[in-house]
Amino acid sequence: MGAADNNPRKKGHSSTSKAHISKQPMTWSNWYKHINWLNCTFILFVPIGGCILACWTPLRLYTAIFAVVYYFNAGLGITAGYHRYWAHRCYKATLPLSIYLAAAGVSAGQGSIRWWSKGHRSHHRYTDTDKDPYSVKKGFWYSHIGWMVLHQDHKRIGRADVSDLDEDPVVRWQHKHYIKSAIFMTLIFPTVLCGLGWGDWKGGFIYGGILRVFFIQQATFCVNSLAHFIGEQPFDDRNSPRDHVITALVTLGEGYHNFHHEFPSDYRNAIEWWQYDPTKWMIWLWKQLGLAYDLKQFRANEIEKGRVQQMQKKVDTMRSKIDWGIPLEQLPVIEWDEFVEASKTRALIAIGGVVHDVTAFVKEHPGGKAFIASGIGKDATAMFNGGVYRHSNAAHNLLASMRVGIVRGGCEVEIWKGVGRVEGKTGVETLAAGGQVTRRAPMVKVDEAQP
Ligand SMILES: [Zn+2]
Ligand SMILES: [Zn+2]
Hints:
Blueprint: H1 15-18, H2 31-34, H3 37-54, H4 61-87, E1 92-93, H5 95-106, H6 113-125, H7 140-149, H8 163-166, H9 169-176, H10 178-198, H11 201-224, H12 245-250, H13 257-262, H14 278-288, E2 292-293, H15 300-320, E3 333-334, H16 336-342, E4 348-351, E5 354-357, H17 369-373, H18 381-384, H19 393-400, E6 403-407, H20 412-416, E7 421-423, E8 429-431
Parallel strand pairs: 3-6
Antiparallel strand pairs: 1-2, 4-5, 5-6, 7-8
Helix pairs in contact: 3-11, 4-5, 4-6, 4-11, 10-11
One zinc ion binds next to helix 4 and helix 6.
């Protein structure tokens, strides 16, 4: 929990007496001051009470169907409404759709649009930092629920601009009348509907109200925890957001969170047609019905840029762990005569202007000892590149591990500029497949007998 504040803002004050409770260590004597009892009541105690009461409340079929349908509406209110419409402005909604989303969102019991979107914009702006209201860097449970059940120092949370929301009459009305509308939409409406509809007042209250809210709350909290915890990072791995189908299944498609943090104003979270994103499907459907318009979408080219850069970063890391042979720049430059002289005591072969010590390899040469021995003390470029046998890419790579020098006056200048050289971000230079400096176009055509 909160670590002691070693850097009190005001000089002269003792850190513990004036510091916000969240910055004081939790002890046996102050733990209850850390707890946000109001939030605890709504997201823990009431749901626990609902689970206990459910043991004595039979679940009727109509009530179950209603609870599931209402659950999905509340979920869409959060994902398509609070999140993609208000927090990120991914599309524009007509007034009827806006009112529906505000009402459905209230029924999920997650605060007003204004409060929710402000926190979410801070989360995007300050992801993984101390200013992130639900930073996963403080632990899975902190990002899931801890940030709500423990008191937070509001001065810590990063600033986010919500002036556009303050101009939205639906947002203003919902914020002003939040408590009343939340009590009505979360509990009274499901109770009365199930009661008047098929006489199940208690079931409507427990299943359509309390437990439905509990499940939708936990599902939404997963976007802050699970979506920053499990899965792949195809677009950027510098921050915690991740893509995972399980998170998507739980959150009506919000699980492609690595994409979402990179392209937050895109109305989609899943960009592939086969990925599960019912929120995207609904927004698209509303567009067909004339309820939504101006759906924002990043160009595929921009998205692919990020994906390729991230793939490149992974490849750079992999190749930095591989020994590609001594870089040409670090090899000693020797005269041709020195090379010939030295090859009398060591098995040296020049290929493409690069000298290789094959002493230990002669016996292991897959093509036999005789062929390799015939190249010792000579320029075997043509022989290696097809004159005798056109060696594989792997053979060129293996050869590079034996290089010991460069022959002066050879064609090394051109070689050093050779095609296929790639400078990785890690500073480790390597070669694309087939790009070793020793590789030459075959000088003699082999195995091409005329019919
Ligand atoms: Zn996030
Ligand atoms: Zn977001």
